[in-house]
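Weekly puzzle thread! Below is a chain. First person to post its structure in token form gets bragging rights.
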Amino acid sequence: MSTETTRWLLDGDPAVRWQVERDLLRAPDAVWQATRARVATEGFGAALLAKQDADGQWAGGAHFPAGFFETGGPAEPDQPWVATSWSLNQLREWGVDAAALGDTAERLDRNCRWEYDDMPFWGGEVDVCINAFTLANGAWLGADVSRLVAWFPEHRLADGGWNCEAEEGDSVRSSFHSTLNAVRGMLSYERYTGDTSLREARHSGEEYLLRRRLLYRESTGERVGDFVDHFVYPPRYRYSALTALDHFREAAVVDGIPPDERIADAVELVRSARQPDGTWLQGAPLRGRTWFDVDAPEGEPSRWLTLIGARVLAWADRG
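Winning reply:
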């Protein structure tokens, strides 16, 4: 990566900068930790914390903003990305210290219920992706997520992964999207708590993806869908080869293992999307209401994708 591109990355929001310092520049811990501490008081992190309601929620709802279903159907054509679960995901992934959220876990326990069956927030509901987000966010904030720790092994499918549609009886096969969200949630839980009780379930989901080399249908060997090379930030819930590789990079660090050889095709897919100047371009953003923009418009160089792409290739190439 050129010096110019590195400087461009470092000129970004503190949420990007501290990860560039840690993952690409290998800066001393004190350097990137000082930058990370700024996320709660500057830029994206501070702006999103300022949107929090007094009752601990964002936009007055768990997964959807208040009033979204009051008319008997969705009040907006697309999924809004402003409610509590989405906002917590962003703050956690940006590196905001849990202490900056104060008693948020307790306020959500008192005041926030899922739109599905009015279920308590930290107990999760029936959707795999929502439960994965909640497992990770609860572990980060110190909430009781013991119901979800039991839920993931119990709802694993026979092929080793998970599928949001399985709870409605619509599928007995796992999904790339659901399985990646599940293993990401379980990895975050292990990192925040030190509890390894979900490791076997996580490895099962990871093996589901690795058997498919992160890209292909196991039955036919065909590319699973156009989403695998749709690189966009934020990815929200969507699978891509880039997001999957970033998970496997982090999991390899936690598990103390080298990269699996089966990621090779996905690595080359990510490498082929890198521009001559070392950047990656923003894909088409997922439609829906947001609090504010956190990355470049479609077709322009993305600091977030460049950070993630560069650290994935550095890890894979070292391995």
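Puzzle host: Confirmed. Bonus trivia for everyone else. Strands lie at 280-281, 301-302.
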